[in-house]
Amino acid sequence: MAFDEMSGYGGDVRDSYRGLARWLADAPEGLLQARSRQAELFFRRMGVTFAVYGEAESSERLIPFDVVPRIIGAAEWAGLEAGLIQRVNAINAFLGDVYGAQECLKAGIVPSELVLTNPHYAPEMQGRRPPRGVWVHIAGVDLVRTGEDGFFVLEDNCRTPSGVSYMLENREMMMRLFPDLFADYPVRPVETYADMLLASLRACAPEAAGNDPTIVVLTPGPFNSAYYEHSFLADKLGVELVEGPDLFVDDGKVFMRTTQGRQRVDVVYRRIDDDFLDPLTFRPDSALGVPGLMTAYQEGTVTLANAVGTGVADDKAVYTYMPDIIRFFTGEEPILKNVPTWRCREPEALKYVLANLGDLVVKEVGGSGGYGMLVGPASTKAEIEAFRKKLIADPGEFIAQPTLDLSTAPTLDKGELAGRHVDLRPFVLSSPDGVRVAPGGLTRVALKPGSLVVNSSQGGGTKDTWVLDV
Amino acid sequence: MRIRIDHSTTYAYDRAARFIIQTLRLTPRSSEAQTVRDWRIETNVDARLRRSEDAFGNIVHALYTEQPTQSLTVRVSGEVVTTDTAGVVPQDQETLSPLVFLRDTPLTQRDQLISVFASEFSAHPALERMHRLMAAIHGSVAFEVGVTTPTHTAAEVLALGRGVCQDHAHVFIACARQMGVPARYVSGHLLRSDRDDQDAAHAWAEAWIDDLGWVGFDPANGVCPTERYVRVATGLDYLGAAPVRGASYGGGGERLAVRLSVRDADMQQSQQQA
C-alpha cells in the first residue's frame, strides 16, 4: 500500500491535512465538483493551455486541475528545502568544475567519458565562467515520496525547467475558489516567486550592468508548448517577452529593438534550448536564436539564464553519480536521496535489468517528459519484449529504476475523493546571494487509478501545493 | 617553408544590408609547427572587429558593420613559416579533451554505410587504421566540385561517392569516431604545386592517436599534412571551423565569392631576384 499524503498508511489524518479534513467533512455535498467545474471554466477563459506533443488532433489542451491541495508540513518542508539547496549548490559547483579545472573527473567521481562525450556537454563553454559564476539560475527538481521520510530526487531539471506558471496559477485559482479554506490555513505564499526570480536574475547580471539591469524573457514563440508560461512570466516579472529576431548583437553586446531605438540587454532568461540560441555557433538553421549571442556571452556582457551547457548536469546518466557529486563538492552527506538506479552501460547492471524488465522503470538517458520510457509493471509482454530489443541494441542509452510506490494524495474523481499518485517539482533559484527555494511547487498527479506516470504529456494533472508555516 | 596567403571572402547582397554580423575564423595561430607573420585583416567597408579565442583554441574575429552594406569583403593576408612535423600536431595549445571529439554532429552523423565502411579497418592498430581509412576514402570519394553543398552530411557524401575536401574530411571524421577514435575537422590552406590561385580554402581531418596526439590526415589528397599545409581553425565539423559564419539584416539573398592565393614566398623572392 502506498503512503498517502493525507492519511499515511491508513491511520489518522496527518497533521498537515487536519484542517482540510475538517473542512471537507463540513462541506456541502457536490461543492468540490462545482468548484472543479468552475476552475475549468476559469482556466479555459484565461487560456492556460499546454501543447502536448504527439497529439495530432488537438495541439493545445487544458491540463486537468485537481482542486484538492497537496499539503506539506513545515518540518517536512524544512528538510526538503535544505536538501534542495545542498543539491543545487553541488550542481552549480559541478558545472563550474566540469567547464573549468575538471577536478571531479580527475578524481574519478564521474567518469570523464560520460561527461565529455555527453551530448549536453557544451565544448564551447570549456574554460568559460558565466557572469557571477552561476550556472543553474532556475532548477526544477522532481521529487517523489515513498513514505513518511522517504523523499527521492527523480530528476534534476537544469536546462529550461517549465511548470512554474502552474504553481502560480493554481494558487491564484485556489484562493479564488476556496477563500474560507485559506483563512484557516497558514499557507506560505508562492506569489512572491516573481519577486524572488527578478531579484535573483538581477543579482546575476554582469558586473558592468550596474544597479538596474535590463532583463528579457526569450521565447521560441507561440508555437512552443510552454509559450503561455513564457508570456505569463514576462508579465509577472514586468519585463519584455522577446523572440530571437527582437534581439541583436553589436560590438559584443546584446540589444533589443524598441520603438525608441536599441536598448542594451543585460540578462536573458531564455526558454530556448542551447542548440537554437545562436545560429553562428550552434545550429545554423535556427531562426529562433540571436546571431552572435555566444560571442557576447563569452565576452561576459550578458547573462544567460540558465547558462549554456547545464544539460550535462541533469542528464540521466550523470544523475546516477549525483550523491558522489554532492559529497565531493559539499563535503556533506546528501540530504535528499537518489532513486537507486542501474546504469545499463555497465554489463552487470544490464544483466540485472534485462532479467527484471517487468518490475522496473527503464528510461532513455536523453529522454524527458515521460517519452520513450518503459514502466514494466504497467506494460504488456509485447511492449516489454519490444523494449528489450531497444535496450540490447544500445544499453548505454538507458537507465533503470525500481518501480517506486509513489505516495498518493486525495484527488477528486467522478465526485469521489480517491488516492492518486503524485510527485513534486519545487523551483530552486540560484544567485550570488545564495540558493532559495520557492515555498511550494508543482504537484503533478496521475489521474488514472494506479498510474505512476504524472507527466502532463501522458495525461497527468496538477494540484496546488501548500507549504505550511507551522 | 614560407607560405604567402592572400584570402578574400566577399558577400554580395540583393540590396544594402542594414547590418551584418560575422564570425571569422580566418587567422592562423602560431605554434611549434607554424609561425604566423605580418598577418593583416582588412574590410572594404567600415566595420568593427573584435578578436577573441574560442574554446577550441581558434582565433576568432567578430565583425560588425557600421553602415548599410551592399557588398562586404574581408581580406586576410600574411605569411606563415612552416616546418614538416610528419602530420603530427604540436601539443602546445590543446584546451579540450580528445574525448570531446568522439561526439556526432549533424554533419558527421553515422549510418549503416559509415559503420560498414569503417568496420573494414578495425583489425589494425589505430595509426595504421587511420592511414588505411584515409586511403580508402581517397579511393571511394572522387574529388568533384559542385555536386555537394556545405549541408551534405558524411553519410550522404559516402553514398554519393563524390565531393570536395570538406566532404572527404567529414567522411573521415565520421568513420574515425565510429571506430572510437577522436577526430576533428581542420580548415586551412594547402600550397599546391600546380597553381597559386585557388577556388576555396582547404580542409582535412585530425585523429587522436594515443602516444602521438593529434595527427593530420588529408583524405582528399590521400596524404598526411606536410610543411605545405597551414592550419587555420579546428572544430567538431565544418561548421565549427568555418572561415565565415554570418547573418545579415535586411540584405535579402546573398552570394559568396572567394579569392585565394597561396604561394611559396621563397620561390617568389628568388624569381624576383633572378
TrEMBL record, chain A:
It comes from Brevundimonas lenta. Transmembrane segments: none annotated. PANTHER family: BLR5612 PROTEIN (PTHR34595), SLL1039 PROTEIN (PTHR34595:SF7). It comes from the Bacteria. Residues 69-446 form the Circularly permuted ATP-grasp type domain. It holds the Pfam family CP_ATPgrasp_2. This is Putative circularly permuted ATP-grasp superfamily protein.
UniProtKB/TrEMBL annotation, chain B:
Residues 157-221 form the Transglutaminase-like domain. This is Transglutaminase-like putative cysteine protease. The keyword Hydrolase applies. GO terms for biological process: proteolysis. InterPro entries: Bac_transglu_N, Papain-like_cys_pep_sf, Transglutaminase-like. It comes from the Bacteria. Keywords: Hydrolase, Protease. It comes from Brevundimonas lenta. SMART domains: TGc. GO terms for molecular function: peptidase activity. The keyword DNA damage does not apply.
